[in-house]
Amino acid sequence: MRRIAAALIHHPVLDREQAVVTTAVTNLDLHDLSRSARCYGLSDVFIVHPIQAQRTLVERVREHWISGSGARRIPDRTEAIRLLRVVSTLAEAIAALGPDCELWVTSARALPGALGIAAARDLLMSEGPPLLLAFGTGWGLADSVVASAKVRLAPLIGSASDGYNHLSVRAAAAILFDRLLGDRA
């Protein structure tokens, strides 16, 4: 199977009016994404943020769980947090995986030419270049990121009778990891 990594993008992302913005890092996202990624065998979790103070915050959290008191109290968390990589741009994350890295994007909204989960799972199980599965914070990835992707995945659709579809990014990532990489026995 190919090398698979995830990226949590804080810029460029959209706000509720569809303007391109930068969002703040959320501590829970760091923990939950890295733990989910570790459970499903991802190689890395890139936190993409253009603001140095936010990247420093992520590094401080990471170090607390790798070499600080968090590592002594909850060693299982250390394994997962080791997957975190902090970069300032999506291009840096892609470069870290190599020149042939494929960008796959997700969205809560329907994207043109989106690939369903079953077809995406088949692609993942075949040989191929490394891929970076990108998740957007705020109200989703900016159009420029979506346009640059090799694969656009179909949205996760819940079963709420009124059509409610507003998962946290960490919950959406965990569901998607399971659907794409989970045991289907």
Which labels suit this protein?
single chain; 185 residues; alpha/beta; six-stranded parallel beta sheet; 8 helices; 8 strands; globular
What's a quick, concise take on this entry?
The protein has 185 residues and is an alpha/beta fold.
Report on the structure:
By secondary structure, this protein is an alpha/beta fold. It is 41% helix and 16% strand. The protein has helices at 27-39, 52-66, 69-73, 75-81, 90-97, 117-125, 143-148, 169-181; strands at 4-9, 13-14, 20-21, 45-48, 84-87, 102-105, 131-136, 151-152. Helix 1 (27-39) packs across helix 4 and helix 6 crosses helix 8 (169-181). The model has no long low-confidence stretch (mean pLDDT 95).
Write the layout of secondary structure elements.
Elements: E1 4-9, E2 13-14, E3 20-21, H1 27-39, E4 45-48, H2 52-66, H3 69-73, H4 75-81, E5 84-87, H5 90-97, E6 102-105, H6 117-125, E7 131-136, H7 143-148, E8 151-152, H8 169-181
Parallel strand pairs: 1-4, 1-7, 4-5, 6-7, 6-8
Antiparallel strand pairs: 2-3
Helix pairs in contact: 1-4, 1-8, 6-8
